[in-house]
Amino acid sequence: MSFAGKKAGNGNKRRRNSSSSQSTGKTAEDTWADITMNPPPMPSSKSPKFIANQAEQTNPTDRMVSANEPTSSTNKKKNKKKAKRVKTSAETPTVMKDRERIEWEWEWDDVSVPTHISGADNELGGLVSFQEIDGVDCMWEEDQATGGRTLKFFSAGKQSNKKECKGVVQEKQKNKKKKKNNAKPIITSTLDDEEVDEEALLEAVDWDSFVAVDEFSEEKAAAGELVSIGSRMREMHQDEMGSEMGSGSENESLDDEEYETADDTMEMDVDISESKDEDSNSDSENEQDEDGHEDEKLDASLDVPDPDVDVSAWETYSIHPLLLRALKHLRFTSPTEIQSKTLYQSMNGRDIIGAAETGSGKTLAFGIPMLQHICNKDKDLWDGPTGLVLVPTRELAVQVKNHFMALTRFMHARIAVIVGGMSVAKQERLLNSNPDIIIATPGRFWEMVSTNDIYLGHLQSVKFLAVDEADRMLQPGNFRELSHIFKTINKAPLNKTMSRRQTFVFSATLLKDMQLKKRHLSEKAKKRMKDRPEPGSMEDLIGRVGFHDKTPHFVDITSIDATAKTLTEARIDCVADEKDFYLYYFLVRYPGRTLVFVNSIDMIRRMLPIMRLLNISVFGLHAQMEQRQRLKNVDKFRDTPNSVLVASDVAARGLDIPQVEYVIHYQVPRSGDLYVHRSGRTARAMQEGLAIMMVSPEERKLYYKMCDKLGKEIAPFPVDLDLVGRLNPRVKLAREINALEHKLNKNTHERNWFKKHAEEMDIELDSDFLPSSDDERGSEIKHSEKVDKMQIKSAKARLSKLMAQKILGRGISSRYLSSGVIGDLAERLSDKSRFNEVIPTLPKQSALEAVKKNKKSH
Ligand SMILES: Nc1ncnc2c1ncn2[C@@H]1O[C@H](COP(=O)(O)OP(=O)(O)OP(=O)(O)O)[C@@H](O)[C@H]1O
């Protein structure tokens, strides 16, 4: 049987079964790829195409653009991982059998794809994706005959599969023309394991060309829009090599999982709690000695906490040694204020209502008592989930899970995350796997629990209930389900082993809200409120949650303005249309991990392409994004130094990203609470941070109202207007390009829309709607599009020229490096560690320093 690929669009569509198209040899006109295989006879319904598709459907995350594949040693591990996943996924026995047949029974012949054949280069993404089939490998080789490069597929027969190919398959999508003419294989392959020099291999890989697979598109590649994830992959690969040399297979699965986060963060974020638990479960089971002393054994596989880290400050709370050890490992030397003010009481069974500013460590304040209970209980006895944590958003659920996971490093606890937007079947599996802690959003959790008596039973045996970000739970989308959950949980006859359930309610603005509300009420209303709280209010929530303590331990450590003490605030006054200029100035002058908040999704869509044109590593986050993409973007933002996340208020609350240096309110937030929560994404965990608000004349009213509510005015941020002016042309040009591209895309989109719907309705459209290239209007449109494209091209050329120029102060020229006002200009131009990369006349400085310096000088 043979496959003959024709020139076609998308990689996956490209595969053709040769029963309909015969391979005709390597002629440039009609065939660019010819792959021959000699499978044993099988019925037509089990054609390779059928099986490949089945496999893809079973596990869509396995799809890879193989041009970006790392080394085949990584492939080997990926394949192992794949195989592992295949077993756990709901794959039918037939498909598994077919997969095995592909891997083991078929004899794969090598094939060549000379890249000089027109179109072959473009199409290789699809071809290379044959690597999706386990055991099939491919690599580039110099083609003496054609002078181009050849893609070689390696046979994956039973014998050769044992000697996995160690060649590196990787392809740089940029510079296509260059590649076509004189491209060379990056690394030649060998089938002999011993001959492979792993280190040389690592050196030779052009990591910067690796891009996140699901973001890959030809258009993006051509426009240089693909964001490299190379540095991250390099690190992973280095780790992987290190672990291979070290402890070997034990670390393998971990590396694989980490490797996967580059492509598949969301799956990881939610699945890992399951899989890691399973792993750790089986690990700890294996490692337990007869007396059940697992901790000594854990030492062997997990890194030992630094002995110099002193965690004696935690000892007063009688924290279990395994948790103490995790705290030591995390280098949390002492409790934060909210932790120290609640832990003594919570460890002694008290209910807690706590309010502390964002980033103050509330999660551990309720997490430690829950995990302490798990440490102390009989491990063989599962009598329902120990803890239920209710959170308002999916992102927060994943984040709380991460905090819990970090703390369970040296113990065994199963943590299930139950949130909307994920597969119900998967979440059912998690609920069925006897979780110790459930972290859930009220909507999805209630949906699952209310229709299943077993889960209802589990709910009623929960021993710890925590409501995090309680103020946000008051929103209509959450409150109803939350009330149902409270009602059900409180119906329960309490578990025999527990005298009573413990409840925690935490928020950043909880008490402030209550106080403010009370302040604005009349005396009569206040009295009425005392007897019967306003439906859907915080008092209502607290009333329904079902505390067992008559007077829960009440802690409010929020400052008057509710922002962290380590937060510095500033504002920039400018007209709305100039905000882009000031933002770009800020990002260039003070590079750092920056979270930019805007008030609408449209604004995010407008800003992202402009910032990308200006070479800023920028990601977006908003509610209309798929959940998977949202988590992925947060992950990329977290991992890319000096990157920017442009977000709507979906990210304002609860999102814990370490080392966010700056928060910029591009538009004045609609409420004081939102300002507090947005700003709380920086200055977390006692670190310093800066929040800057951009205020246009139209927003001044809102700004003053907000200041009034927060009881403070915000000082101006020092801006160098001369530099703003010098950077403006870049921003203007980027906006111009963006507008042209938008227009072009819009027209094409509209035409395609009409065309698609006309075809669906089987009607012929008037040429006004769908002009053809034959008529006058059609050719006019074509012409105008051509002009637009040329304009875009020319503007892009001008922009890249501008971007290449350094911004120097007035009267300074880089032509005469040693004769200007700045004597060491040459040194400054080359020393990126001390001087600003774009404005080399200025030293590197943090915006926080600039504000402090400005304050001192006034
Ligand atoms: N004792 C501690 N020492 C140092 N860091 C800590 C400590 N406790 C928590 N942290 C870290 O502080 C950060 C903020 O913690 P957490 O997310 O629990 O804050 P939060 O009060 O819940 O914030 P938000 O209201 O924004 O959700 C986390 O990165 C966490 O790991």
Automatic annotation (TrEMBL):
The keyword Hydrolase applies. Residues 1-94, 165-191, 239-304 are annotated as: Disordered. Residues 582-725 form the Helicase C-terminal domain. Residues 252-272, 280-293 have a biased composition (Acidic residues). It catalyses: ATP + H2O = ADP + phosphate + H(+). Its EC number is 3.6.4.13. SUPFAM superfamilies: P-loop containing nucleoside triphosphate hydrolases (SSF52540). Keywords: ATP-binding, Helicase, Hydrolase, Nucleotide-binding, RNA-binding. It holds the Pfam family DEAD. Residues 312-340 form the DEAD-box RNA helicase Q domain. PANTHER family: RNA HELICASE (PTHR24031). Belongs to the DEAD box helicase family. The Q motif is unique to and characteristic of the DEAD box family of RNA helicases and controls ATP binding and hydrolysis. This is ATP-dependent RNA helicase. It comes from Coemansia asiatica. The gene is MAK5.
